[in-house]
Amino acid sequence: MTNLLELYVKLVGLVLLGFFLGRKLPATVPPRLGQLLFWVGVPVSIVAFLRQADLSAQIWIAPAIAHIAILLGAFLAWLAIKGQAYLTNTTFQHPTQGSFILSAMVGNTGYIGFPVTLAMVGKDYFAWALFYDLLGSLFGAYGLGVALASRFGDGATNSWQITKAILINPALWSFGFGLLFRQVTLPSTVEFYLEKLGWATVALSLVLIGMRLSQLNSWRRLPQAGGSLAIKMLLVPLVLGYTLPFFGITGSAAKVVVLQMAMPPAFATMVLAETFNLDRELAVTSLALGVILLLLTLPVWLWLF
Q1: What is the distance between the alpha carbons of residues 141 and 146, in angstroms, rounded to a whole number?
Q2: What is the pLDDT of residue 244?
Q3: Is 2 helix (H, G, I), strand (E, B) or coil?
Q4: Residues in Cβ contact with 151 at an 8 Å cutoff, skipping those fewer than 6 apart
Q5: Global pTM value
Q6: What was the pLDDT predicted at 172?
Q7: No. of H helices and E strands in the chain?
Q8: Which of 164, 208, 255, 259 is spaced 20 to 30 A from 1 at the CA atom?
Q9: Residue 145: what pLDDT?
């Protein structure tokens, strides 16, 4: 409980700081901070935390579970759209359908999932969260996500441009480098400051989330966002969470995987919505509401698992 309260103070405090700064600073600051984290901060943090992670367990199952969760979320969202059309004789516009499905399938397993995992489970099991994100969520967003976004939007000509981002993603390259760099012995002082840089990146990531949320001007899409979040943050982790023992995942490893499955929608949903002209308002509302909902659901997942 002490760890949970400490996590809430840090999460809420840093996000609120970002929200305040997002309203006061020029509009160019959040994109620049995002670029800094993308190219420098996140890769450094991956290298830093990988040095202390336990890679002896069957962590390669984590990305497989991630892909199953993504597919299940997309399928349940598709069923919800069909069910709504059948019961009300009305249907979402194609751009809204695209944002609804994306919000239900891809989670923010990096910027939010990493600090939650580190705070609630510890560095020993960080590799589970890392493999889930880099080999699961990343490919789900820019693989299946791109295909769905081009299907429901009108930006199909940009498909190759976004898919190409996977190949030059610095997080993936730093992941490979970090695995090799684990074998290198560093002075304790360098090790200390490397870890501090990793934690600084986590803090700046939460500040960036607050800045992005400050851009939300309307809650008109609240009902649709609530539906996608019920699938993403409640149904999928509940259904798959109880199947983890069949994959041999128990204890702290299971807790990490469940927490990753229960994260709010990823920033990638907003990027895809903007690129393919989907329902950007729904994407941003889902992201904002998901961060708020996480404060309520996090204790439940920790209690259940």
Answers
A1: 7
A2: 95
A3: helix
A4: 98
A5: 0.85
A6: 77
A7: 17, 0
A8: 208
A9: 85
**What string of DSSP letters covers 105-172?**
H-B-TTTTHHHHHHHHT-GGGHHHHHHHIIIIIHHIIIIIHHHHHHHHSS-GGGHHHHHHHHHT-HHH
Q: What pLDDT does 106 receive?
A: 92
- Burial grade of 196 (CB within 10 A; 0-12, 13-18, 19 or more): exposed
Average pLDDT, consecutive stretches of 10 residues, N- to C-terminus, the chain (305 residues):
79 91 91 84 85 78 96 96 89 91 93 87 88 88 82 64 66 84 88 90 85 78 93 97 93 95 90 82 90 92 90
The C-alpha angle 86, 89, 92, rounded to 5 degrees, equals: 90
Residue 2: per-residue pLDDT: 66
Backbone phi and psi for residue 265, each to the nearest 5 degrees, phi listed first: -55, 150
Tokens of 262: 């229960």
**Coil, helix or strand at residue 193:** helix
CATH number of 2-304: 1.20.1530.20
- Asked whether the beta carbons of 262 and 238 are under 8 A apart, the reply is no
**CA separation for the pair 97, 3 (Å, rounded):** 38
**Cα angle vertex 113, ends 112, 116, to 5°?**
85
Dihedral over alpha carbons 293, 295, 297, 299 (to 10 degrees): 180
In the block, which residue shows the tokens 């920033």? 267
Residue 234's pLDDT is what? 97
Q: What gap in Å lies between CA 70 and CA 5, rounded to an integer? A: 30
In 3-state terms, the chain is what percent helix, strand and coil (to 5)? Answer: 80, 0, 20
